[in-house]
Design goal:
The protein has 16 helices and 16 strands. Strand 2 and strand 3 form a beta hairpin. The radius of gyration is 24 Å and the shape is globular. By secondary structure, the chain is α/β, with parallel strands linked by helices. The longest helix is centred in the N-terminal third of the chain and has 22 residues. It has a domain of about 260 residues: Enolase-like C-terminal domain (TIM Barrel, Alpha-Beta Barrel), CATH 3.20.20. About 45% of the residues are buried.
């Protein structure tokens, strides 16, 4: 892997292409004598690396290197050895995404020019007629990121250069910690601080209840139709500010703390939590509401100065345009493969820039290393970048995905290879097939209150 601090160099192909372009320019100038300039201008001149190519195949590669089903789209072209990869991991519906890629987008995109990314995005998006659903958006996102990967490889540049170049040398990241007491949480956070992290998400466990904390030992409710994991919101609402108060006393103010409500509270409870956490100066409070409850953001903004992050469940622009333009959130948290890939994400980032909203793209364990690379290329080229969620992958995953982003002292670095800089070794990936049945995660459908009522996950 190249050093994260080195700028890309000019390779032999790029040098020869530029040399040829210079010779062509000299020939044009010489040939313009004698009235031949107008004639020369009528001749189309190809740019370096612009030999026409077309898409020959689009397919989904499935693997499970981390105990999580992962999907990567591969777009192959008529130029031997030239292809692109893009993340399309939608864990609850990954087999549906595979069908959308292999049975619908593949025949639709074959024969088309991969250079026209925006046109292919719009054509694929409009072709479904019923738009903005998570299955088709993940399929489209995988294709879109793969097309950016191809474009970068063709011109010999990393994707961040195609997006405008670097605004920073690396991307500050946060990772996950927590506990059921201030002492447990502080110890967990300190371990990450010692590894160089300056931003840490702290989750709070409530014994025997599923509150999106680090302790997964929760009570199981009854058997039969109403079986599920027990959830009570009131103990959680009381525990969160108590734990954060203790963590601040133990660790002080040097570490930036984040917390994810994960849409599990009634809106009025989430507003109370945001107010109660104000004294502990969070970097942000994530997903206080469900997408269906975005009307509550005006009430939240009027009552608290706690910074708010939102968006990992968003599919549709109608979910985020108004809360961005209304300055009702501080960080946009979209899952890039959920919203349409790099093309859509950069538009959202540009919109946010006008309203002082920063980016904090979703980066959980079920985002593939290809998806994390896409996040980071966007982060590098986005002036209003805020923070990047990141997980550290196993050695097995690193073998399957050579070139994946690296983290050093709490900062993420991409390599300087053309395109996204990450690949998937299909032979190694095939050694790690899905082991779970079903391969998707059905646990969200078993999240219930103590009386058996289904709750938002």
């Amino acid at each position: 892997m190249n050093s994260p601090h080195l700028e890309p160099t000019v390779d032999r192909r790029s040098f020869l292409s530029r040399l040829s372009a210079g010779a062509a320019l000299a020939g044009f100038c010489a040939g313009s004598r004698g009235g031949r300039a107008a004639e020369s201008r009528e001749e189309p001149v190809e740019n370096s690396g612009s030999k026409p190519i077309h898409i020959t195949k689009v397919r989904m590669i499935l693997t499970d290197t981390q105990g999580i089903a992962t999907g990567v789209v591969k777009v192959e072209t008529s130029e031997p050895g030239l292809y692109g990869v893009g993340c399309a991991t939608f864990k609850p519906g990954i087999l549906a995404v595979q069908t959308a890629v292999d049975r619908y987008l593949d025949p639709f995109l074959r024969g088309k020019d991969p250079a026209h990314i925006e046109d292919l995005w719009q054509a694929s998006f409009q072709s479904s007629y019923w738009r903005n659903g998570p299955v088709l958006m993940n399929a489209l996102s995988g294709v879109d990121s793969a097309l950016w990967d191809i474009k970068g490889k063709r011109v010999g540049l990393p994707v961040y250069q195609l997006l405008g170049g670097k605004c920073r040398v690396a991307c500050p990241a946060y990772s996950h910690a927590g506990g059921s007491t201030p002492e447990e949480a502080a110890t967990s956070i300190q371990r990450l601080v010692e590894k160089g992290y300056r931003y840490v998400r702290c989750q709070v466990s409530v014994p025997r209840h599923d509150v999106y904390g680090p302790d997964t030992r929760v009570a199981k409710l009854r058997k039969g139709h109403f079986a599920g994991n027990s959830h009570r919101s009131s103990p959680y609402v009381k525990a969160v500010p108590r734990v954060f108060e203790g963590v601040r006393k133990i660790l002080g103010d040097d570490v930036e703390l984040l917390h994810d409500v994960h849409e599990r509270l009634h809106p009025i409870q989430a507003i109370q939590v945001a107010k109660d956490l104000e004294p502990y100066r969070l970097f942000f409070l994530e997903d206080p509401f469900a997408p269906e409850d975005i009307g509550y953001f005006e009430h939240l903004r009027a009552q608290t100065s706690t910074p708010i992050a939102m968006g990992e469940l968003f599919n549709n622009p109608n979910e985020y345009v108004d809360i961005i333009s209304g300055r009702l959130i501080d960080f946009i948290r979209c899952h890039i493969s959920q919203i349409g890939g790099i093309s859509a994400a950069r538009k959202i980032a540009n919109l946010c820039d006008f309203f002082r909203v920063r980016t904090a793209w979703h980066g959980p364990g079920d985002t593939s290393p290809v998806g994390h690379a896409a996040n980071c290329h966007l982060d590098l080229a986005t002036w209003n970048f805020g923070i990047q969620e990141f997980v550290e992958f196993s050695d097995r995953t690193r073998e399957v995905f050579p070139g994946m982003p690296e983290i050093h002292d709490g900062m993420i670095y991409v390599n300087e290879a053309p395109g996204l800089g990450v690949d998937i070794d299909e032979k190694l990936a095939a050694k790690y097939p899905f082991t779970k049945e079903p391969p998707w995660d059905p646990s969200w459908g078993y999240f219930r209150g103590v009386d058996g009522t289904i709750r938002r996950p």
